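Posting for a labmate who doesn't have an account.
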Amino acid sequence: MTNLLSLFLSSASQGVLWALLAIGVYVTFRILDIADLTAEGSFPLGAGIAAVSITNGYHPLTACLLGFLGGAAAGLVSGLLHTKLKIPALLAGIITMTGLYSVTSRVMGAPNISLLGQPTIFHWVESFGITKDNAVLIVGLLFALIVVCLLVLFLRTETGLAIRATGDNLAMSEANGINTDNMKIIGYMISNGCIALSGSLLAQNNGFADLNSGIGTIVIGLASIIIA
């Protein structure tokens, strides 16, 4: 029974970190009705930026923020390719995902970066006498709660409602004067920012950032949405 409880706690602590990835995929897939494959590039980009930042002496929270901004920049590229260059969403995501492999490799400077012995956001929570699994669960739940609350508040604003309208009915949104291209770009940026944030936290939890860690992330995100 103890082993079962320990296994459940370990799985749950990992799951709340992956939940941020699911939230990011949800924004494009369900709200904007776009199949965006940029996730497989923005996830390792966030992990790589966070790992490089931490190894260079930045605070883990700052590393997470930089990872989020890196993902948002990746989403901006996909959004511009799709809206301004009129490239189909699926192809735009593939192009960005492929390009991000080189970008992430350049950022990291190596196929993987170890964070062993480096301070992470989980070490700070553990310093209060909390076990590793509990620390990961607490941090993951806190980040997920903050992201969900901010998204709920944002989607109730004028811009948020415009993004939702764009995903529900593109033609009607344009007829009502909504700049649907801008709404799509904002959606792309929020989505990939959340995905990169998930990568930043998982890299700190796993103790390393790997260039190939993004493979299969879109499948995990879509499966999470369908199950939920």
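Reply:
Got it, the structure tokens are right above this. The first strand starts at residue 112 and ends at 114.
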